[in-house]
Amino acid sequence: MKKLTLVLSVLCLFVVTGAAFPAPSERYSMDKDGQSVFFRGTKVCDTVDLPEVDRTVFRWMQVNTPEPSVWIFNPYMPDKTPFFLPVADGEECVNVFMPDEEEVFIVELKSSQNKLSMLVVCDMKGKKLFSTPGKGPLYWIDGHRCLFTSFVKGKRIATGASVLQILNDTEDDIDVTPVAEPDELTDYTAEGVEDDDCILIMTKVKSPREWNNPDRNETKTKITVPVPAAG
Hints:
Layout: E1 4-7, H1 11-17, E2 28-30, E3 36-39, E4 42-50, E5 59-63, E6 69-73, E7 83-86, E8 91-97, E9 104-111, E10 117-123, E11 128-140, E12 145-153, E13 157-166, E14 174-180, E15 186-194, E16 197-205, E17 218-226
Antiparallel strand pairs: 1-4, 2-3, 3-4, 5-6, 6-7, 8-9, 9-10, 10-11, 11-12, 12-13, 13-14, 15-16, 16-17
């Protein structure tokens, strides 16, 4: 993978934006080497080379007025203009990922309204193609599949583990396969991928009432589950 370039000093971009926010592609750009960020042709920020981080290659800034949005700077985009993702009120960008050889982003959004996170798959124009309750980190099985901690909403918010698979940049080619589903006494948290196995932490309690107890008596066990077959 290419050495990654992250944008420094995001706060300086807020200084020059002013009160109105037209589409960021009209205002911001990066040079062809990903070394600097420009505002309407004027250099406003330098960039710095950082060690490679697995498929999280972006720097973003969140703009909450007048329309909430996330502006994502991707040094590998051909025209180096920011990616623009509208978000709902109360949603906050937590992280941004990009699969290999797919023209999509995976954005982790956290909601202040329901205290859940969502993994949103969107195309390069900001159109949301798919979303599923869950949170990172994402553990990549290959360039198209990743393991994540998924949320199952019922009598309580329980966590399981699932695999998100992206075969193309359309909604019909995006799929989620559960690998471990919670029940009244058991939760699962994704911890990694090793060879052909998903690494999970299984948390068990003796009574469903224990989940509401901050000092609950629980046991945690590391387990492995085979990676599901590719679709």
